[in-house]
Structure to design on (298 residues):
């Protein structure tokens, strides 16, 4: 009888152990099931690849200021700042460090001014790629000729949090074709450079256009000639006629206005700016920094 009871007890214990083991396995599987513990959501950034030309003044001139900041820090030999402004792959490919970045990019720059002329970008994207083409003017601190660098190209990459990096590109690119063929993909910028939008006043923009044009009269006369609107260009049948009037134009073109009127058409804005003593300047703007100029007093 005792043996029978002992056997029964042992059977019950074995059954309980089996039940406990099965229950433990079941609970373990349940804890690890995807339904109860879904994987951490992976971030899927919205990356757009369609390229358009930038028309907004505030963004255009903010990007121009970013490139000028790079040149200012190169001129000032600020290695750490230059290094931090640049895109990671560019730094690695060119062996740039926090100790040598400004020196390796320096080209005897002293007082520089970068003028953006065309900017293309991929709108409505979490990561925005701005493809920039313009020219650089370097003015020596002491006596010497102004140095003019045509078609200097850059890429500024801006994330949705407002941080950016700069990647210098080859000179003399067809920047629209380059932008359309660029492999836009997600990336971690690892940047502390904060983008700041500018607020551009119409009067300041037009004054800048005239000042820039006056400088082009001498540093790129052919470009200045081709920027004349048709009515004004008719006064100078050849570029030689135009060159013979450079001094007169430089001295007469005004950058302070009594009145400005703007007439927006389908693909352009026509501004008419007057001065109390001289006459009228007409600026036909297609995009920021893409304009024709005319005047009735020469």
């Amino acid at each position: 009888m005792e043996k029978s009871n002992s056997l029964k007890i042992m059977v019950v214990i074995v059954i309980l152990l089996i039940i406990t083991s099965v229950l433990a396995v079941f609970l373990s599987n349940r804890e690890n099931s995807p339904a109860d513990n879904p994987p951490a959501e992976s971030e899927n950034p919205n990356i757009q690849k369609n390229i358009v030309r930038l028309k907004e003044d505030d963004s255009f001139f903010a990007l121009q200021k970013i490139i000028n900041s790079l040149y200012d820090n190169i001129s000032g030999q600020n290695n750490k700042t230059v290094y931090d402004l640049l895109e990671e792959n560019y730094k690695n490919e060119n062996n740039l460090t926090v100790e040598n970045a400004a020196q390796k990019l320096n080209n005897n720059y002293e007082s520089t001014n970068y003028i953006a002329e065309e900017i293309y970008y991929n709108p409505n994207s979490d990561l925005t790629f701005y493809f920039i083409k313009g020219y650089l003017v370097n003015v020596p601190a002491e006596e010497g000729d102004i140095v003019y660098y045509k078609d200097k190209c850059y890429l500024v990459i801006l994330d949705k949090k407002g941080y950016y990096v700069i990647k210098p590109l080859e000179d003399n690119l067809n920047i629209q074709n380059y932008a359309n063929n660029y492999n836009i993909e997600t990336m971690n910028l690892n940047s502390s450079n904060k983008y700041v939008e500018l607020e551009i006043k119409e009067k300041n923009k037009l004054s800048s256009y005239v000042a820039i044009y006056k400088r082009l009269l001498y540093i790129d006369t052919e470009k200045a000639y081709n920027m004349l609107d048709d009515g004004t260009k008719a006064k100078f049948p050849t570029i030689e006629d135009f060159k013979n009037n450079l001094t007169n134009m430089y001295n007469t073109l005004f950058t302070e206005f009594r009145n400005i009127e703007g007439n927006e058409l389908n693909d352009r804005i026509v501004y008419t700016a007057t001065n109390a003593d001289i006459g009228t300047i007409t600026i036909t703007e297609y995009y920021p920094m893409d304009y024709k100029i005319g005047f009735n007093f020469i």
In short: Confidence is low (pLDDT under 50) at residues 1-42. The radius of gyration is 32 Å.
